[in-house]
Amino acid sequence: xxxxxxxxxxxxxxxxxxxxxxxxxxxxxxxxxxxxxxxxxxxxxxxxxxxxxxxxxxxxxxxxxxxxxxxxxxxxxxxxxxxxxxxxxxxxxxxxxxxxxxxxxxxxxxxxxxxxxxxxxxxxxxxxxxxxxxxxxxxxxxxxxxxxxxxxxxxxxxxxxxxxxxxxxxxxxxxxxxxxxxxxxxxxxxxxxxxxxxxxxxxxxxxxxxxxxxxxxxxxxxxxxxxxxxxxxxxxxxxxxxxxxxxxxxxxxxxxxxxxxxxxxxxxxxxxxxxxxxxxxxxxxxxxxxxxxxxxxxxxxxxxxxxxxxxxxxxxxxxxxxxxxxxxxxxxxxxxxxxxxxxxxxxxxxxxxxxxxxx
Amino acid sequence: xxxxxxxxxxxxxxxxxxxxxxxxxxxxxxxxxxxxxxxxxxxxxxxxxxxxxxxxxxxxxxxxxxxxxxxxxxxxxxxxxxxxxxxxxxxxxxxxxxxxxxxxxxxxxxxxxxxxxxxxxxxxxxxxxxxxxxxxxxxxxxxxxxxxxxxxxxxxxxxxxxxxxxxxxxxxxxxxxxxxxxxxxxxxxxxxxxxxxxxxxxxxxxxxxxxxxxxxxxxxxxxxxxxxxxxxxxxxxxxxxxxxxxxxxxxxxxxxxxxxxxxxxxxxxxxxxxxxxxxxxxxxxxxxxxxxxxxxxxxxxxxxxxxxxxxxxxxxxxxxxxxxxxxxxxxxxxxxxxxxxxxxxxxxxxxxxxxxxxx
Lengths: 359, 359
What we know:
2 copies of one chain form a homodimer. By secondary structure, the first copy, chain A, is an alpha/beta fold. Helix content of chain A is 46%, strand content 12%. The radius of gyration of chain A is 20 Å and the shape is globular. The termini of chain A are far apart.
């Protein structure tokens, strides 16, 4: 059985393209009578982004706290707030301005507007039954690929499980890519997030589950990441634009990750570490599994003068080490993608905990 | 103003994926009560393709004569036949099985089902007003990119004009890519058509109108073309799959061609030459304009043992030479894309006719 892959409906790219968002939204308002719901990363609270957006009377603007990654409880709470505002109406559009956390919060909340229950009911594959309202992604941080991917990742604390709502309905209908919006991202965060594209693309290319379209997109995204991170200034105007494309293509290719993402998920669950930097730590202890990419990654870190402080797992309890292991090993499909069906013979509890201790 | 680029809605790729067309079509039949309209390249008339397709009672199967490229008259005639069969009903799907000629015929006829008038009324940009019925592309020949492009090219004999219906409504909703379907293509035709992707992608990359998404997709498509055409067997299973992806990506990137396509259009109008081989002749006399690509193209021809017989424009009348020139020079946007606004100083009548005489 081959997968019928859905594409993002429309995309616009260009420096300054945010100015055209009004036209796109006007077309939606003409079609649907309900308000627009804006999700903004709390980074923009008190800054000038909101004043530049085409917010109309009756719309709702929500600032999403992205201190930690989205949780099932957090998404449920946001959904309740949106439902209360909508009072039974259909939104003309739901718009997300931020990185993966903000975009994923918007994606998941949208699914919950048209599907009964709570967010944890939809963690998995093809569980969403009804189409979500129309959604627009405006990334202000590049790398996760959330703008084009079919997942919205949430952390389920009770289950110690980081898992997405994987569904065509989770996808955005429109993506707007304006590289001006990533000019103010802190350098470290820009690197940690951007490198996520490099990570999930090489994991896909070195795995057992392949397909030629995903391969082609991944190869191109990796090519762009190398141009960006092996250059002198990863945040030049041209490089920020390149990074937006890499993320966009990487998101289309996402889905078949390897052993970096599971270890990263463990860190996010137990240490509440953000996805991008968690990926960096995960790869930093997998020189035996991905020797070539490990070397390339280290060269990129050096070129961009990014460091990963050591000792992040020092002094944890045995229970916490076990939780780190369990939060990683649960991701059987990605682990077997790289290590084969006998992955537990390589990724033993001791082996995995030893890797965390080396971080 | 940045363009809001539309994507093909869904795509499926894989050797043998044609077997899943039934599922895709069933979902459409459940939604819309009308018949399915199948357009098949006449190459398949009397072969076994039709018997493998999910044709139901009441559907219409049309064989498209692709001896020459689609004309406004031809498309109008096909449209009339489809309208008569539909008798006011909406088709659940319009499906095209073939190369660019068959796919474009399907795209243009679909536009004419929901928009009044004749095909020549829509040759140009953004002239189509109403959405077309749902359409599925199943390429059996790779290279034109028609499966993902927003144009449907038709030749207007009365106006000596080869020009497409450029519109988001022209695009397919679903693409199904099964490399098994290109196994029986004659070698020459496989090369001439596949190389179209290489041509329109390098023309885009060497032009003045650029954008980073189109650049990224074009670069990847060219990369795949080189892998295919510089290998020992361009028609191996893997290479036919690669060529399908290259065409798919190239179609997404299409739109900003250079000086190859205008000269090729002249050949198609006056000598009724097919697009792919016409492109080859066009590049074969532009070693001064595209020296690097000319050399690469010659190496590909040699590797694949493809030849272009000389003398195709020998013995034409002056009126025919003038028509060749006029059918080329009318494409001002592509010509200025490569040669700048003063393109007529380089592409004088004498210069252009001399190129045709060298073919």
